[in-house]
Structure formats: C-alpha cells, structure tokens
Amino acid sequence: MGDMVTSPSYRHVPTGRLALLAQRMGRVFASASTWYRLVREREWRRPRLRIHPKGPKEGVRADEPNEIWHIDTTVVRLLDGTRAFVQAVIDNFSRRVLAWRVSDRRDAGTSVALLLEAGSAVDETLVPQLMADQGSENCNRKVDALVERGLLRRVLAMVDVAFSNSLIEAWWRSLKHNWLFLQQLDSVAAVRRHVAFYVEEHNTSIPHSAFQGQTPDEMYFGNGDGVPDRLADARAAARELRLTRNRARQCGVCA
C-alpha cells in the first residue's frame, strides 16, 4: 500500500480511486477510509509537487479613478424561465459602479449608452482603459466608434492582457448572492428595482474591506481620507473601555 501511494507511477490517481485500483490489480483489498487513515498516520507523501505556475492572486490595479474601467454583462434567470441581462461599468480604483442597465436582451447600443454615462463626469483629458471580454455587446461597430474617437482605450481580457475581467465578475457574485437571489425575481422591472437598490448601497453605504472602511463613493471622489484613522482611533478607544469595564467587575467572592 505504501509503495503504491508513494510511487510516481500512480501520482495522477486520487487516493480514494487508488484503493479501488489496488483491488482491481489484486494487490490490496482495503477500504478507501483505511487508505486515508494509513496515509495520514504513516505520513506517506505522494509525489505530486505542483510545478505549473499559479495564476496571479491580485489582478490589474489602477492608481487613480477613471484610469481603468471594467464592463461586463451577466444573466439573471427569472421565475418563469426567461432571462434578464444586467450590464454595468465599474471603476477599477474605487470599485464604484459608474453606470448600469437591466434589459430583456443584449444590445450593442446599451454598451455605448453605459460608457457615455460613465464618462459624462470625467475630465476630457482622461482616456480610461476599458477592460472587456469578447462578447458581441463589447466588440461591435458602435463601441469601435468610441475607441476611434479617442474617448477610451479598449483591451480584451485574456487576449490583449494576461489578466481576466475578474473584478467586475466578483461584483456580480456579490450582487446575485447577497441580494438578487434573496428576492422575488418575477420580471425585468423587479430585477431593475433590486439592482438599483444594491448599486446605491454598494456605492454609498457598504464599506469596502480593501479600502479600510471607506465606501466606493468616498474612494472615487476622494472625500474619505480620514475614515481609516477615525476607525482605528475608535477601535482603540473601544478596546480600552472594554478592558477598563472588565477589570472593574468583581465576582461574588471578591465582593
């Protein structure tokens, strides 16, 4: 059993299946749980050292607002089986949702409207880099026209750059699992109403862990610089107060 576990010839076979393979070979007749127990107790080390390079843990990061945008579309299935398409543009630096739409179909015009809305408050001297996938709503003549006009620079995730569009995909997971999937999604209008609520909460109320308690709006507009220090002072004061109260308490014996 130990020879098979530590043999390079079987390093591609999971331990549970190795137990069955040993039975088929007529070498060892023991349950998978026995194999797992002996591997653990005798500290057999399987020759399965990973040599393939791992992917980067941290994706592309901007140094200021409106330097990098992400655009993507996600599909939400309604109770009757039909689908609603949610599309959004997110600022990389602040994680702020700059623009969003909910519709019953994919439309290239929606991408253009979103990008124009996102850029309506951007200084004309800035040319954001737009990270998108190869979906038809992002790669079309209408979006190409914005690129040709010099309003933005488009890069395709996993094509023009090695990074994926994971930042906005992470936000889709938060939107769906923290809010949408808890609601009665019986129409496109209902999805639109719930997305509007969550976007407002995300931008203005929910502090982001990457920003030490600042919200995306505070990062985007630069008016939350004092939040991390204020929270740190408040935590220190609360810790001191808790220690003082605990030390002042007396049990019945001490009294």
Topology diagram in text:
Blueprint: H1 2-6, H2 15-24, H3 32-41, E1 68-77, E2 83-91, E3 97-103, H4 108-118, E4 129-132, H5 141-148, E5 153-156, H6 166-178, H7 188-204, H8 216-221, H9 227-248
Parallel strand pairs: 1-4, 4-5
Antiparallel strand pairs: 1-2, 2-3
Helix pairs in contact: 2-3
Please give a structural write-up.
- The chain has helices at residues 2-6, 15-24, 32-41, 108-118, 141-148, 166-178, 188-204, 216-221, 227-248, and strands at residues 68-77, 83-91, 97-103, 129-132, 153-156.
- With 255 residues, the protein is of the alpha/beta class.
- It has two domains: 2-41, no CATH class; 68-218, Ribonuclease H-like superfamily/Ribonuclease H (Nucleotidyltransferase, domain 5).
- The chain has a five-stranded mixed β-sheet, with helices on both faces.
- The longest helix has 22 residues, at 227-248.
